Amino acid sequence: MTLLTPLSDVLGARIDGLDVSAPLDAHQSQWLADALHRHGFIVLKNQSLTPAEMVTFAKQWGRPSPHVIDTFHHPQDANILILSNVFKDGKPTGLVDAGTYFHTDYSYLDDVARCTILHAQDVPPAPNGTTFANQAKAYADLPSGMKEKIKGLVVKHHYGNRDNLDKQSRSVASVLNAEQAQRVNWVRHPLVRPHPFTGQLALYAVSGSSFGIEGMPDDEALDLLRELAAHATQDKYCYTNNYENGDVIVWDNALLLHSAPLIDLTRPRTLWRVTVLNPQGH
User: How far apart are CA 117 and CA 139, in angstroms?
Assistant: First the structure.
């Protein structure tokens, strides 16, 4: 029997009893999509997916898109990015610190991400999880004057963490090599976006890749973006989900900011990640 249990009043749901190693039927797919849009992220417990099964599951949400850091693509499928602090023969087997600041996946691309999927392979005991912040609730709570001020604003995005550009820092955006850096450019997205499936309004990527606002001096734009980010990441909008081995988590990039933990480098931690673009037409 499939059971959905909300994890908090603000966001998150746990799902037990559904094996996603086999393709889902139309009813199951719609039920999961409704759960994702309602709760922001869903955690499917006790899964054991091969790389091929994980990518098949991802394709039921949209178009898997390989990460620009191709150094750590899974050898069996480039759509999977390996997140790991494990070293082999003195070399990293995956990204060690990835996104340890509030951000939205792929907000630095024109074609933005629908959802991100992680599969916990080998994780230490809690605390070890990702913190999520509900950007629809944060937007809804803004004063009417602020809503009017930001209406129609267009934000300039680029790969990176605008609040930390020190390449030696653990909270900088994962560093690109010269060839990878040539593949990312400036893009523009609305500051407030309607959800592509529900129409619900939410702040979009006010932390992380947002470096400026069209038609606004940079210092004024950064002050506004930081003010919005501080509001949108208050504890009342957040929930931290700790992982267990076998978890498959799906989160909605149109609805959430998220921040990965600064992990203990002495405790092995490996997860697989697939980021999925919206289906054509959304």
Answer: 25
Query: Please, are residues 130 and 103 in contact by the beta-carbon 8 Å criterion?
Result: no
**Residue 156 pLDDT more than 90?**
yes
Partners of 190 in the β-ladder: 154
Q: Does 76 fall in a domain? A: yes
Segment 109-114 shows an average pLDDT of 96
Task: Please say whether the beta carbons of 182 and 195 come within 8 A.
Answer: no
3-state DSSP assignment of residue 212: strand
| Residue 282 is assigned to a structural domain of this protein | no
Cα separation values, 263 from 127, 154, 173, 255, Å: 9, 34, 15, 25
Q: Which two tokens stand for residue 170?
A: 């653990």
Q: Determine, yes or no, domain membership for 173.
A: yes
Write out the residue range of the structural domain in which residue 47 sits. Answer: 3-277
Number of alpha carbons in the 13 Å side-chain half-sphere of residue 60: 21
Q: What CATH code is carried by the domain that includes residue 56?
A: 3.60.130.10
C-alpha span between 180 and 252 (Å, rounded): 26
Taking the whole predicted model, whether its pTM rises above 0.90 is answered as: yes
Query: How many domains does the chain divide into?
Result: 1
DSSP string, 42-64: EEE-S----HHHHHHHHHTTSEE
